[in-house]
Structure formats: C-alpha cells, structure tokens
C-alpha cells in the first residue's frame, strides 16, 4: 500500500478544518496568512485523497481519514502497456508542413520521429512546429528532422514500466507525452523501437476509471 505523506501545511489545514468545519478556503487561507492560490494544490490533494470533503458554497469538512492510500493496489501495479496509445510517428525527411497536418489531424501534442525501421530518432512538439512556421523558411521544404529534439535527449519508458514511473517522467520533464520503446537487435546493435505512446490524457483516464469504480 502506498501511503501519502502530508506536509506541515497540509497537516495544519486538517487541524483548522477539524476545529471549524465547515470552513471556506478563504477562511483557511486567512488563518494561515497565505493566499488562496497558495493553498490550491494542498486542498486539491487533501480532497482528492479523501482526507477532506468539499461542498460547493458550504466549505470543507474533515472526513476522518488520517492516512490515505493515494494510489492503491489498483494503480500501483498498472504498467504502461495497460494504458498506452498507438504512437503518432513520421520519418525524419517528412516536411514540417506535413508534420503539422499530421499532429492536428491526430489531435496530439507531439509526434515521434523515426527511421525506416521505427527506431526512435527524436520528437517534435507543437511548440517546435510553431517556431518553425514563424522562422520565415519554406515549411514545405524543411524536413522535420532539422527541428526535432534528438535522442538521447528524449525521455522514454518501456511497456513494462509502471504508470507511476511514466507519470513522474512526464511531470519532471514537462512534456505532453513520451514514447514507449522496446529494445530490438538490428545488425548486431540494440535499437529503441517505438511501440506506443503514453500521455497525460492516458494517465488521467486511468484515474477517472478508478474513481468511477
């Protein structure tokens, strides 16, 4: 079981709610001499994990739970393979224009760049493509390989990795999605072949499914 470790401010919030429930976020912020914005993440964690109960136009109540199973067995053992999506990929010689069309038709935040045997070469985001379009060049002639972030500067996971690890990497590197790769042998060398993608959306859907159940 994974137990959430509450920080000092979150513990103080719990004590305040216990003493004065129901209490609004404005009142909690005033008692702690901080802004409501400062408390937003703390209150989100405490309500998401069930320590506090929030009722619109009423305030926060204490739910009587001091230690909460944050992820639980349902998510702790989930692997990337359980929730990953099909990867959106183009080759290095694909034009920036065609990549833009691909990324919007697929409604994704980034595209993985591969060679002819699906080995990961790099990644390009919407931000990268926007920079290319305002750079003044002919995006019909510029290959996407010229603007991509190249390996090994691309963070990856394998299908056997846990969802928790994938979520940590997405947050730490501030990206929309990361490629799922598997090592395969090619010409006596090991390459990273792209087999999927895992994104913030995949992880959010998993949380919602667990919450609904």
Q: What topology emerges from the helices and strands here?
A:
Elements: H1 8-20, H2 25-32, H3 36-48, E1 52-55, E2 59-62, H4 72-76, H5 80-83, E3 89-91, H6 96-106, E4 110-114, E5 120-125, H7 126-133, E6 149-150, H8 163-173, E7 177-186, E8 189-199, H9 200-212
Parallel strand pairs: 3-4
Antiparallel strand pairs: 1-2, 4-5, 5-6, 7-8
Helix pairs in contact: 2-3, 6-7
Domain CBS: 83-139, 148-213
Keywords: CBS domain
Pfam family, one: CBS
Description:
The chain has 2 domains: 8-65, Winged helix-like DNA-binding domain superfamily/Winged helix DNA-binding domain (Arc Repressor Mutant, subunit A, Orthogonal Bundle), CATH 1.10.10; 77-212, CBS-domain (Roll). It contains 9 helices and 8 strands. It has helices at 8-20, 25-32, 36-48, 72-76, 80-83, 96-106, 126-133, 163-173, 200-212; strands at 52-55, 59-62, 89-91, 110-114, 120-125, 149-150, 177-186, 189-199. Helix 2 packs across helix 3 (36-48) and helix 6 (96-106) packs across helix 7 (126-133). It is elongated, with a radius of gyration of 22 Å. The relative contact order is 0.13. The model has no long low-confidence stretch (mean pLDDT 87).
Which structural traits does this protein have?
single chain; 213 residues; Arc Repressor Mutant, subunit A; two-stranded antiparallel sheet; Transcriptional regulator; CBS_dom; WH-like_DNA-bd_sf; CBS domain
Quote the average pLDDT. Answer: 87
Give the domain tally: 2
SSE series: HHHEEHHEHEEHEHEEH
| Sheet having the most strands | 4 strands, mixed
Protein name: Transcriptional regulator
InterPro entries: CBS_dom, CBS_dom_sf, Diverse_CBS-Domain, HTH_11, UCP026546_HTH-CBS, WH-like_DNA-bd_sf, WH_DNA-bd_sf
Organism: Paraclostridium benzoelyticum
Keywords: CBS domain
């Amino acid at each position: 079981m994974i137990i959430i470790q509450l920080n000092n401010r979150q513990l103080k919030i719990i004590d305040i709610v216990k003493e004065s429930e129901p209490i609004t976020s404005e009142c909690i912020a005033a008692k702690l001499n901080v802004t409501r914005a400062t408390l937003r993440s703390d209150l989100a964690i405490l309500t998401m994990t069930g320590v506090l109960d929030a009722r619109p136009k009423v305030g926060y109540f204490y739910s009587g739970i001091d230690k909460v199973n944050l992820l639980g067995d349902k998510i702790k053992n989930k692997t990337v393979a359980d929730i990953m999506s099909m990867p959106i990929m183009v080759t290095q010689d694909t034009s920036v224009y065609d990549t833009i069309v691909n990324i919007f038709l697929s409604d994704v935040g980034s595209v993985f760049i591969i060679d002819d045997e699906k080995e990961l070469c790099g990644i390009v985001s919407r931000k990268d493509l926007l920079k290319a379009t305002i750079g003044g060049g002919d995006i019909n002639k510029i290959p996407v390989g010229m603007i991509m972030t190249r390996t090994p500067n691309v963070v990856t996971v394998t299908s056997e990795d846990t969802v928790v690890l994938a979520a940590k990497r997405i947050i730490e590197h501030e990206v929309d999605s990361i490629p799922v790769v598997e090592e395969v042998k090619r010409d006596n060398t090991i390459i990273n072949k792209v087999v999927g993608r895992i994104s913030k959306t995949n992880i959010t859907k998993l949380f919602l499914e667990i919450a609904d159940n």
